[in-house]
Design goal:
The protein is mainly alpha-helical. The chain contains 4 helices and 2 strands; from the N terminus they run βααααβ.
């Protein structure tokens, strides 16, 4: 199971929030943001800070995927 933060980056675009602005408001390090861009796991407290700033839920900013890139919940055609 892998994680992707595509939803976060789409949300940031929709709300016109820059990387630097989110880093500053959420109080997370640039390293955390780099890890998200690389779709690596980050600590729950960082996710909670980001959700607080964006006034959203965890599933609004991240998504778990299978190792083959399909979103959890995608239905395969048989």
């Amino acid at each position: 199971m892998a994680v992707t933060y595509k939803r976060l980056f789409h949300l940031m675009i929709d709300r016109n929030i820059s990387n630097a602005e989110l880093i500053s408001k959420a109080g997370v390090s640039a390293n955390i943001f780099t890890r998200m861009k690389r779709n690596q796991y980050i600590a729950l407290d960082s996710i909670e800070k980001i959700c607080s700033v964006l006034d959203c839920q965890v599933d609004d900013i991240l998504e778990f995927t299978s190792d083959d890139g399909q979103s959890k919940g995608d239905v395969e055609n048989e």
